[in-house]
Amino acid sequence: MLDAAGVGGIDALFDEIPAQLKQVRLERVPEALNEMQVTRLLQERAAQDGRWSSFIGAGAYEHYIPAAVWQLVTRGEFYSAYTPYQAEASQGTLQLLYEYQSMIAGLTGLDAANASLYDGASALAEAILMAVRLHKSSRRILLPANLHPHYAAVARALTSSQGVELIELSYDSRRGTITPDALPLDGAAALVIAQPNAFGGLEDVHALTDRAHAHGVLVIAVVNPVSLGLLNAPGEWGTQGADIAVGEGQPLGVPLSGGGPYFGFMTCKAAHIRQMPGRIAGRTVDLDGTPGFTLTLQAREQHIRRSKATSNICTNQGLAVTAATIHMALLGPAGLQRVAQTCHANLLALLERLQPLGVRPRFSASCFHEVVIDVGAPAPAVLAAMRAQGVLGGFDLGQWSPELSSSLLVCVTETKTMADLDHYAQALAAALSGRSSQERAS
Amino acid sequence: MLDAAGVGGIDALFDEIPAQLKQVRLERVPEALNEMQVTRLLQERAAQDGRWSSFIGAGAYEHYIPAAVWQLVTRGEFYSAYTPYQAEASQGTLQLLYEYQSMIAGLTGLDAANASLYDGASALAEAILMAVRLHKSSRRILLPANLHPHYAAVARALTSSQGVELIELSYDSRRGTITPDALPLDGAAALVIAQPNAFGGLEDVHALTDRAHAHGVLVIAVVNPVSLGLLNAPGEWGTQGADIAVGEGQPLGVPLSGGGPYFGFMTCKAAHIRQMPGRIAGRTVDLDGTPGFTLTLQAREQHIRRSKATSNICTNQGLAVTAATIHMALLGPAGLQRVAQTCHANLLALLERLQPLGVRPRFSASCFHEVVIDVGAPAPAVLAAMRAQGVLGGFDLGQWSPELSSSLLVCVTETKTMADLDHYAQALAAALSGRSSQERAS
Amino acid sequence: MNRLIFERSRTGRVSAQLAPAGAVVDDIPPALLRAAPPPLPEAAELDVVRHYTRLSQKNFSIDTQFYPLGSCTMKYNPRAANALAMLPEFLAHHPLAPEATGQGLLACLHELQEILCEVSGMAGVSLAPMAGAQGEFAGVAMIRAWHRSRGDHARSEIIVPDAAHGTNPATATMCGYAVREVPTDRSGNVDLDRLRAAVGPQTAGLMLTNPSTLGVFEQRILDIRDIVHGAGGLLYYDGANLNAIVGKVKPGAMGFDVIHMNLHKTFSTPHGGGGPGAGPVGVAERLLPFLPIPMVACEAGSDGRGTYRWLTEADRPQSIGRLSAFMGNVGVLLRAYVYARMLGRKGMARVAEFATLNANYLMVELARAGFDLAYPARRASHEFIVTLKRLKDETGVSAMDFAKRLLDKGVHAPTTYFPLLVPECLLIEPTETESKETLDAFVAAMKAVLEEARTQPDLVKSAPHTMPVRRLDDVRAARELDVVWKKSTRT
Amino acid sequence: MNRLIFERSRTGRVSAQLAPAGAVVDDIPPALLRAAPPPLPEAAELDVVRHYTRLSQKNFSIDTQFYPLGSCTMKYNPRAANALAMLPEFLAHHPLAPEATGQGLLACLHELQEILCEVSGMAGVSLAPMAGAQGEFAGVAMIRAWHRSRGDHARSEIIVPDAAHGTNPATATMCGYAVREVPTDRSGNVDLDRLRAAVGPQTAGLMLTNPSTLGVFEQRILDIRDIVHGAGGLLYYDGANLNAIVGKVKPGAMGFDVIHMNLHKTFSTPHGGGGPGAGPVGVAERLLPFLPIPMVACEAGSDGRGTYRWLTEADRPQSIGRLSAFMGNVGVLLRAYVYARMLGRKGMARVAEFATLNANYLMVELARAGFDLAYPARRASHEFIVTLKRLKDETGVSAMDFAKRLLDKGVHAPTTYFPLLVPECLLIEPTETESKETLDAFVAAMKAVLEEARTQPDLVKSAPHTMPVRRLDDVRAARELDVVWKKSTRT
Ligand SMILES: Cc1ncc(COP(=O)(O)O)c(C=O)c1O
Ligand SMILES: Cc1ncc(COP(=O)(O)O)c(C=O)c1O
Description:
The complex is a heterotetramer, with 2 copies of chain A and 2 copies of chain C. Chain A is of the alpha/beta class. Chain A folds into 2 domains: 53-63 and 332-441, Aspartate Aminotransferase, domain 1 (Alpha-Beta Complex); 67-327, Type I PLP-dependent aspartate aminotransferase-like (Major domain) (Aspartate Aminotransferase, domain 2), CATH 3.40.640.10. In chain A, 35% of the residues lie in helices and 14% in strands. Chain A has a 7-stranded mixed beta sheet, sandwiched between helices. In chain A, strands 11-12-15-14 form a 4-stranded antiparallel beta sheet, covered by helices on one side. In chain A, strands 1-13 form a two-stranded parallel sheet. The longest helix of chain A is centred in the last third of the chain and has 37 residues, at 318-354. Chain A is globular and about 80 Å long. Chain A starts with 34 loop residues before the first helix and ends with a helix. The relative contact order of chain A is 0.14. Chain C is an alpha/beta fold. Chain C is 37% helix and 11% strand. Chain C contains 16 helices and 13 strands. At the A-D interface, α1, α2, α3, α4 and β2 of A face α1, α2, α3, α4 and α5 of D. The complex binds pyridoxal-5'-phosphate (2 copies). The site of one pyridoxal-5'-phosphate (PLP) has 14 residues of chain D, from α5.
């Protein structure tokens, strides 16, 4: 091959590179391992991390994923394909994306969807930029203080260079929710509503939506897709429905996996589709009139519109979307509903077990599958004591706000059995009575 | 559908069944679990069994299986297809079987192969029946005493009703191998030679084969396919080569899995193919002359020949063969050779570590990757003490023969690192000095 | 034809990341070492993955097509069963590892034994046999062992109906028996008069499947039982069709003494392009001592919990022995166990109900579409037979032609030419996991081919036309045998 | 078109085994509960498995076809990487779980940071960005933060060459910059005179990939560095083409201040039909404080072993902040880590060598076959450009037509119409994992289409002919938008 390529040796292939640049040493790269060796290494590291009975949610949720999902997702034809630019040779991916868009639009009650953004937080940032483009005259966005702080941080990081102004809305300290009265709606471009909010609580989405719309303010819904098995869809909020819905797609068949890859979904009203970022699959016909699928509205995207594009996003989270599509198809309406109901019922069952310990919800609003409890002691110590019993007891809210330093954000999904909940209650009881830590010391 | 089927209700579908038979209770069948529940149950059971550093071989061997193998094998098109009776709609499976036959025939140095039998032991039984059919006048088979006793037991169970006489050949107590002189070859139909034998030792296959052939006795080779990366192929034994080769296919990409499913392979000289049991894929052409594959020589099989068939086998071990084919293709000649070399080198490295403990091989013959060591103490106690340190130290040969009650059959494959071997030596040293069991008691 | 993996081979090419470094071997007698490396293909990982991925796409399979192969029970194989049987601890478990390190696995197997006892109505079950045919072997060997244990050496014959699967007579032969066939009467039942005439002191037993491979329930099963038992023979149940009656009728109640169960049929483990399966055997009380080993026992442990252990020769001296080096097809048994637990008590009967409903629906719809049923007066069990004899006579289109043309319509063909006694037969088993829409699409495909057979018979006779190859020459395959690729002749 | 999963939906059908039992919810205000179940398809597990298995078969992919898509680096994705990233403990690890329960995972990520530092020649790396474009965002945001941290608010422009990928100008805009384009000279290098004219006190930086998307190495990279740095701007390296030089030249040595690396290209993580990828960013010393969070730190633990922890806002107050709710695409990072460990130190350079060898071989062979190269006097990097302008003029066959016809030959088309400055261009990247035989087969396919374009241009213009659909109407897709299935209009 070297001969055919007309070079005398491998080095000649690099002869256009200035010689002084070619002194390369890679000392910090270890020597090669063969597959067996790297397998052993990773297996040992995984075993070191262990398995836990986890009650942490806070934006990423443990759900049961049917075995069929990832066995299909990792088929080479999905796994190792590129973005479907050659539509005729990518009908598998394209039809799946079209089906995904249909499912997620249906789930959120809106008209149109894109084929994914990076994650829930960056999807919110993109929704904010989209709202600003739609509104044209205002760049002011209202963000509730009970929005997941990482979402707020990402929104800040991704929108600040474009002069977007993010206004924080405080929440009612008793209910933990945003009060629809007295919102600074005048002159705002959009109101962000998180349902459930970061405390797991349910907002009065109808009143909030209607207020915003009465002031000409767009509504961006941030929703947990599994909760939509139970809660009403953003498209049904208030009299007109939210304008844009975004959220973290992970709960739909994507494993926790240390934080990613997940995917952000985004849906909107039909009128807004041309301001939507990201790829969109559309149905069309071929030369014979046979239906088929292709990427559409590409004129919004960076590879066509370049500096005028709706976003710079190119590679998205396709494979995670593949999982979500198959997951939703397997669950179906009844399945998603039953998962959502079971999550909620399990949360109530846990709260019941905590009552005898004097542990109660911190806020009074109804919850979906996550709740803030006050343990009356510093959260880190309580969590450490529970961990010694194999339980990850929740998220320490002191990390988000000092006044919540004895509060845990606890999530219960359908994966927990009654025995798991009993075990949680025992571990918490032991942690609170200090028994467990004594046991460890002995 | 009931209407269309012309019945008033489900029960009517069963109206031809005598009523008194239909009182069915299934009390011992538990109530249904959903997929999440059964997953939890099996995960807990698997976790209970744990992971061990195992040095047990004795017919089933731990080897590294490249990740690609089972990701491909479990593709629905392989996993959920039937026996390729409709050849035109099964070219995937059929071509793979043809490739498998070519690989395994090549590996054993013989001319023809079938598409698998159940396992190594039953393959030996089928080879014995085949030899008896080939020989026509004799039904006497010579079985070495250092053949895996389970193989002998299976041969007995499967051939005894057909008047086959199995004669046991004793082995040399010093070398652990069969002595080519003084074999009762006269009037025998076939001689079985296991290479390596059940003690891991290497027989003088050339002399044994030539002796047998000199007496008109067929030679059935029982071989470990991985050892053939290093050892010469049955087809090269002696001047004429073995007549039939069989063995356990498990080491070629099939996980240990508690004992199965594995697969038995069988290859033979061209002249014997019409007496071979099991399915055979063959290459042919279609109406256009395009090459393609089909099951062939079906007239040997039960579905055509019925009571005159070469065997009753129908369903075989197709999926395990699929794994073995992909595994062999990935390893290639160099890979298989290197695996075999590494197994052998690792065994020597272990023996070196055991020398300081005064632990030596029981027999003097060369070994491949398995060896009998004498630990000078009752094997069960030694093994139990090693197990307390996470090591499964080998197979207790006292289970096979009382005079070997202080002997372990120890196997080392390429999966073991030098650290694993050190750990083995430490665990054995501790077990022998009794320290470990004392530690446990304290 | 895709090129063979051997034809993709290039000297020196390796999947570099896969194998360890190797080592020099100098302590083994050189005469025992191979001179040249084994003639395996040399390919990179990408070559191999691409090759076998593409090959796989040439298969029909349940995951891609409707596959109504009668007697084979091509129903959906739940993916959870695969995932759970392949949990790393199970995969790594050595068959000879101490029982203490396999209690979780053994618990599953023991419970499966119990479940199979219950659904079959037998007194004991061994999971050892590795497929249906090996289950048959075990069953008939037990029949033989029983007669012998009673000193009855005169019994030299096994009776099988002419509709029987080929494994039945082949098994009888392997067990040293002569085979006597009894015919089927016009309604699809065993001809009782001929059966009465066939039994005698030479009768070791009768092998039967009920519902039979004709797709009908043997209505006079209790008479058959009385005739065979009356003659001193035992009754063997070929469980290939158990899915038709699981949870509805127990073979034990019908009087069967031995049964094998094809877990790859009734319990939905995958067929894997030819296997592996599993063929556990169940027996009535009197045959218990003869069950093949190993079996799993549960003994009360010191802590009150059950402790599981393998039963071997020592525990079961009268056993017919060992059928495999280790423990049959454990991974298949685990899949069946998961399936059984997901079905549960109530789900068992649902299998039979839906399988039977689907078959009867399809049978009626096909009759309505102009197809001839082999047993039009009978209820279908989980399967039924269409005979194309009239079509063959009228158009020359055979069942084989018809089957090949169905492939072009995107459905796998039903079983053809089995059972042998029905001319130009298609044995159709839709299974319970297929939907009405799929059945309706199949009826449409059948109708379309029927129409084609009448109007363009040559199109059907030369089918298939859309597969990776056209009709293959089986005669040539057998005459000019090419079963192994050879470098010299083929590169 | 396969029917949609919605069209397979039947009211009341469920995958019974999958969902829990459900429960009555009566403690949530009814106004917040949805009135009707969500409009998802209702299907059995078999329906779903069959549907998506068959859909998958309609894709081209690396595992099934040669996929020489320029700039996209469609090389083999090792299956071990997938298996190991999906080890159950990693999959179950919650991103907010205590660091003590994730030391194994964090160790992998930390080592990956180190490896990426080393191969890029940068002072620090953050793994946070979730794809190349987000890496670009992070990089340009750091450039902005750096200028601002020095009180330099005048810099309002980012310069990009006209050959740049669309994400570069789009990113500049997202970061609040105006974009100024500089042209390419005739030999494929940045036009230095025009660059000199373009820079000034308004220049925040230049975004460049080297080798460029024209498939050639920017020879005067050190001059470019001097010009940009001289004007006070910073140099951004778009790492999409890092695979061409990995182990051979370090971007840090070329003078780049910031780099993103597409792990889904150079580090061979799968493209997944559109993602996910990962786009870690590396920076030179002066930009270290601005790296996006979270990053992984290794601190000496009390037991002497390293303890790993996340670095957040508190540790890195000058950071440009958070780009995702948690930690980027961890699963992708794990795959890249496994790949890097299997390659090892020496393997890194092999990637560049074989990728470059394959590209140069293919370029020479295609030139020999009569194709016009965009830069015939240049060495190819890992990719190169063929221009079909002459063919288009002569026959009317466009690069698009040509690409579609290649699909019929069983190979994926190269990238078409990018970079925009070469007319009728095909950007061809064979990658290092393809064999000579595959390259030769591609040359044969290219020749065959060339011949067809000359002799039967209509055949090529109406291609593809063997795909599941014929050429699709993109104009209609955009004009009569149909992006969501609606029950009412479509059943
Ligand atoms: C009626 C009947 N009996 C027995 C068998 C044999 O079972 P196996 O293929 O598992 O050996 C089959 C399978 O094809 C069958 O259909
Ligand atoms: C040159 C170049 N830059 C940037 C990108 C963007 O990377 P990503 O798709 O990962 O966002 C790409 C990918 O297509 C590319 O080819």
